Backbone:
């Protein structure tokens, strides 16, 4: 059976009719998108792996119980499950997620939270929010490469494979993303330092 020609709802039906490989294919098909979504929010690979596993355990249980709503898209349903599990994680830890991208580029340099006082923490949170807003203004190709690099922690080789462009193109897009972020920060008079 060629799972590659099936859409998600056909794969779900195939799994429910006893073909375990259909679910394995479905997971493999969407794992990068789901894992990237999770890691951007939790900012910790071990936690992201746990949430990712929990997501698919819940999906399997829900499918087996016959509670999957065929009307909705499988990937959207899966992302809602992942989102709810992320929120559960932060509720258990009694804190909410923050995005604190880190890399060698100084625009992403943010001091560690434990080193900051209350005023600096407030400023840091505002910087993070401003940065997320600025990233959304980037052209799609630059924004995609930047998110894969900083949030998903992919290498440029992995980004190249993920996006179907050469490593040099991925590097170029990243470079222009950073240049454009600096320009956007100046244009909107956003300070990106604590």
Residues:
């Amino acid at each position: 059976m060629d799972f590659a020609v099936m859409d998600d709802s056909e794969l779900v039906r195939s799994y429910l009719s006893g073909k375990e490989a259909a679910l394995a294919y479905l997971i493999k098909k969407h794992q990068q998108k789901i894992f990237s979504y999770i890691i951007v929010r939790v900012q910790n690979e071990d936690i992201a792996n746990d949430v990712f596993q929990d997501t698919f355990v819940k999906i399997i249980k829900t499918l087996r119980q016959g509670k999957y709503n065929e009307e909705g898209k499988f990937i959207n349903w899966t992302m809602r499950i992942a989102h709810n599990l992320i929120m559960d994680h932060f509720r258990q830890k009694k804190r909410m997620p923050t995005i604190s991208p880190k890399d060698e580029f100084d625009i992403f340099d943010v001091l560690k939270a434990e080193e900051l006082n209350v005023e600096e923490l407030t400023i840091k949170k505002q910087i993070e929010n401003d940065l997320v807003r600025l990233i959304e203004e980037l052209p799609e190709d630059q924004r995609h490469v930047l998110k894969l690099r900083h949030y998903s922690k992919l290498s440029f080789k992995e980004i190249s494979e993920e996006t179907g462009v050469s490593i040099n193109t991925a590097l170029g897009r990243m470079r222009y993303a950073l240049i454009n972020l600096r320009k956007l920060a100046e244009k909107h008079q956003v300070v990106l330092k604590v």
Notes: The two ends are 56 Å apart (CA to CA). Residues 20-42 form the longest helix (23 residues). Confidence is low (pLDDT under 50) at residues 95-115.
